[in-house]
């Protein structure tokens, strides 16, 4: 019995470690930046919003509650995914998937949000975005730029604020 519990705990922590290597470790976007993020997103009711690697789902729930968007969060670290699923009970309109973000078809997305690392964004995600994202979609990267793409807007209101990049396809 003790062995089974240790094994389950190990597997849960393993998914967190894999997620950290795959796209980014769990570091949540700051709540006080949500207004800036969604000003750039210009999200409208019924539009499809993605948070790639949604952590505990805060951004996804905000997009749904405040803008009535079809909000989708993808997460592969089990503890965070379980937190999302618990929150979904109180926010029935949101959609959390236990899914590797690189395997999701993003062609229907209107707004794609992520907080990755410079390496994973540029070496792994960028090509997928170039292949799949439809014309007119908005892509928002928290803190890190996408190399060789020209942002439509960079939001950085003061020295202490982190940059948030808006790209238009
Ligand atoms: C920097 S956190 C950002 C969390 C959330 N988007 C936010 O802004 O508050 C990155 C998240 O991506 C998740 N993640 C990493 N690799 C992933 C992958 N391949 N597919 C889905 N989620 C992944 C991590 O578990 C982590 O929760």
Describe the structure.
The structure is a single chain. The longest helix is centred in the N-terminal third of the chain and has 21 residues, at about 1-20. The protein has one domain (about 1-169): Rossmann fold, CATH 3.40.50.150. It is about 40% helix and about 20% strand. The radius of gyration is 16 Å and the shape is globular. It starts with a helix and ends with a strand. About 35% of the residues are buried. By secondary structure, it is of the alpha/beta class. Helix 5 links the parallel strand 4 (about 110-115) and strand 5. It has helices spanning about 1-20, 35-40, 60-65, 80-90, 120-130, and strands spanning about 50, 70-75, 95-100, 110-115, 140, 155, 165-169. A 7-stranded mixed sheet has the order 3-2-1-4-5-7-6, covered by helices on one side. S-adenosylmethionine (SAM) binds near residues 54, 75, 102 and 115.
Rg value: 16 Å
Low-pLDDT runs: none
Mean pLDDT: 96
What general outline do the C-alpha atoms trace? globular
- Separation of termini? 53 Å
Keywords:
169 residues, alpha/beta, Rossmann fold, seven-stranded mixed beta sheet, globular, binds S-adenosylmethionine
Please sum up the structure shown.
The chain is of the alpha/beta class and 169 residues long. The chain contains 5 helices and 7 strands, in the order ααβαβαββαβββ. The chain binds S-adenosylmethionine.
């Amino acid at each position: 019995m003790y062995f089974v519990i240790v094994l389950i705990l190990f597997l849960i922590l393993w998914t967190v470690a894999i997620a950290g290597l795959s796209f980014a470790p769990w570091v949540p976007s700051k709540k006080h930046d949500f207004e800036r993020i969604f000003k750039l997103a210009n999200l409208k009711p019924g539009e499809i919003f993605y948070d790639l690697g949604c952590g505990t789902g805060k951004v996804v729930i905000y997009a749904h509650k405040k803008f009535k968007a079809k909000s989708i969060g993808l997460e592969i670290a089990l503890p965070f995914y379980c937190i999302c699923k618990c929150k979904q009970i109180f926010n029935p309109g949101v959609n959390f998937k236990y899914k590797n973000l690189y395997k999701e078809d993003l062609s229907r997305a209107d707004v794609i949000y992520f907080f990755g690392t410079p390496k994973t964004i540029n070496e792994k995600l960028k090509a997928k975005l170039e292949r799949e994202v439809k014309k007119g979609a908005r892509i928002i990267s928290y803190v890190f730029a996408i190399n060789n793409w020209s942002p439509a807007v960079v939001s950085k209101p003061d020295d202490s604020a982190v940059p948030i990049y808006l790209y238009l396809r």
